[in-house]
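Bug #77: duplicate submission created two jobs. Keeping one. Sequence:
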Amino acid sequence: MELIFGLVLLLYGVSDLLFRFLGLGAYAHASRRTPKVALTFDDGPSERTEALLELLRQHGVTATFFLTGERAKARPDLVEAIKREGHQVEDHGEWHQAWRLFLPWVEWEHMRRNPGRYYRPPHGLHTPFTRLFARLLGKRIALWDLESKDWLDLPPEALAERLLYYLRPGSIILLHDGPERTLRLLERALPEMLRLGYQPVTLDGLAPLPLTPRLALIRGLQGFEERYNAKHRVARAGYGPFDLFRVEKKPFPGPDLPGLPRGTPALELHLESQRSMELSPLEAIRYVRESLKKVAERVAQDPEVRLVYGYSYLAQGARLFGFHTHPLPPWPRLAATLSSAWFLWLYRGELPKPDRSWAELAYLSREEILRRFPPSTPASPPQAPGEGQTPPP
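Kept job's structure:
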């Protein structure tokens, strides 16, 4: 009996890991090639629904509302108002009590009662039966790739900053219809999203595709990226949909370069891989060039920084933008090469070409980057939100 109970628990745990944490096969984001994004609201309708509709109306955008059956039946007037405003209505199940879903017959009833082509489980929870029931009911599982964290007791300004930091083309954003905090963070973030060039649409307008194993792995690793950014105070050089670099201020770790010895204050460049993963070579060249202008603005704002640099097997390609290259010592070269190969496979499904498989150092001095990519307003302070000096919480 204990063995059977243990196997059942293992099955539930594996199902939740594969289908909620990784999101394998779920609809969690769309193509990264266009700046369309989807605002999605769970748990409604609520006493805040009308205020949310008014805010969306003011900015001329549409969204998707995942409604709970109990609440929708209690407020049919709000359901009609959501539809009348042109928003998409989908299924969040009958109840929002995740513990009840561990009983298969309860989960079936929970998923069966309400119409919808998309179904979002409460908290994203998956049992071994969730995907089977969804297939039998003709529903797609809709998850997300960006949590607003509007359930946390944090200032709306900080939540808005974080949302803009991690917003990407094709993102599905998880929000909630109910908290006052959601309204406040959207009042700040939504105008910035539009100013930056994002286009909020419904899920149908976004046209997401199910996550393949590789895309599911990328989704599962996002939390590690966020923790690294917070720990090392990594900032985005620009917040536009295709601003491709994050920067980390640190002493230059070497090797010694002419006039730029080890320990020189520098900015290490980190490529925003998810933004570039579907770009063609010509698109990548254009966006890298534009993104380096944003890096130059960061350099201009910090008189201590003497160079920008990065390690990659693509270092030779950086010469196109004026970068110099330098070979690395054996062990750093091996580590940088393996890291580059891993990210190339993860984000583009490719392996390095044999003729350029070893990573090198690519760098530009302060004077060179400011000359090649002159900032338009080098002395101007960064805007907020969306141009914070430190990563959001």
